[in-house]
Amino acid sequence: MTSTSVPDFPSDQDASGRQLGEEEIVALTSAIRSGTLTSTKGHFVKEFQSKFAQSIGAVFGYACSSGTGAIHAAVSAIDPSPGDEIVTSAITDMGAITPILYQTAIPVFADVDPITGNLTAETIERAISDRTKAIIVTHLFGYPADMPAICAVARQHGIPVIEDCAQAYGATIDGRHVGTFGDIGCFSLQQGKHITTGEGGIVTSNDEGLARRIRLFIDKAWGYGDPKPDHYFVALNGRMTELQGAVALAQFAKLDDSVHQRKAMAQKLTDAISGLPMLVAPYSDDQTVHSYWKYPLIVQPEIGGPVRVAEALRGFGINSAPRYIQKPAFECAVIRDQQTFGDSGFPFNLARPEAVDYAPERFEGTYSFLNDVLVLPWNERYTDEHVDYLAQQIAAVCSGVPHLDVAE
Ligand SMILES: Cc1ncc(COP(=O)(O)O)c(C=O)c1O
């Protein structure tokens, strides 16, 4: 028997796992003292937008009130007509899907890779029809989807790509940041992301026309600065405030460090556990760089699957989430029961039958991934002590070793 004590794991839900400090307080105080809390007049949001866009290699960046709002602005910029289709993943946050419905389009779910949980060029191609207006790709947990292959398919069909990078700050392919492969990149600044303003989002693009529509959508489509401004199309107020902008700017200065720490500690854990049988650790190399919003493991049924492993880890004081989301998005009431606008079923009532066919055999990768994935929380404040402890207990659980003696 080995005796060991459980380290305190930092949490991204409070100060223990967030890098919120003097820099944010100083910036916030300055915003408040200025008396200008709207981004239409202040400088914090503008500065955050341009610094962030530049950092990933995008020309335009527009901040907004949430990651959901970022996706909504992106979908609105594509401007689907009722019944048009947008290909996406059933393993993502619902905030990446409901904007499609609000913009009157049909989310058409493509299957995912059973190990990464990401869409692939092949699964996307199978879901494309002559009504496909866009593709939304989530880089799940911070692991980049294969954007060169996906963009090649999209280009072949003349379809724009929206990258959902809410979980993937700092993730790159061949040195290029996710969010810049497709036509639009969307990020979230929600509490648990790599950087946070509590709630918030930012949309990036290199396309001037799309960028203009994104900027307009975030601001009721009012043409500020135009010679004859008008409200050009249906749009909401999704502006970020200067209070958030001040915090965002201070957080942005810490982003590289946060990503660096997450990657370094994740690599250490992967090195320690990758020889274990019945377990697939997340993959990252110099070409395809994972940025570890979370640390997902694929757990084979032979060692009891993720539910049993999660239970055993809980016994060692380690939190983890089997399945990530409990069910694919198409099994949620909003989609399964078409809970949209009154009892109209709109826009699903316009859908081709195949576009809303959720037969399980069409989603083998999706179900396989959900059945096998175990998600460990991850944090830039994890130290060698946390990672060594995780490695030790994961090894014990996965090799069927009797419980270690854990002293609290
Ligand atoms: C992949 C993905 N897309 C979209 C969202 C929505 O972002 P928000 O919660 O900021 O609205 C999230 C947030 O959790 C997410 O993880």
Topology:
Elements: E1 3-5, H1 22-34, H2 44-56, E2 60-64, H3 67-78, E3 85-89, H4 98-102, E4 106-110, H5 121-127, E5 132-138, H6 147-157, E6 161-164, E7 172-173, E8 176-177, E9 184-188, E10 201-205, H7 208-218, H8 242-252, H9 255-273, E11 279-280, E12 288-289, E13 294-299, H10 305-315, E14 321-322, H11 333-336, H12 364-372, E15 373-377, H13 384-398, E16 405-407
Parallel strand pairs: 1-16, 3-4, 3-5, 5-6, 6-9
Antiparallel strand pairs: 2-10, 7-8, 7-12, 9-10, 11-13, 13-15, 14-15
Helix pairs in contact: 1-8, 2-8, 3-7, 5-6, 9-13
The structure holds pyridoxal-5'-phosphate.
Pyridoxal-5'-phosphate is lined by residues 66-68, 71, 92-93, 95-96, 138, 164, 166-167, 188, 190, 201.
Give a concise summary:
The chain is α/β, with parallel strands linked by helices and 408 residues long.
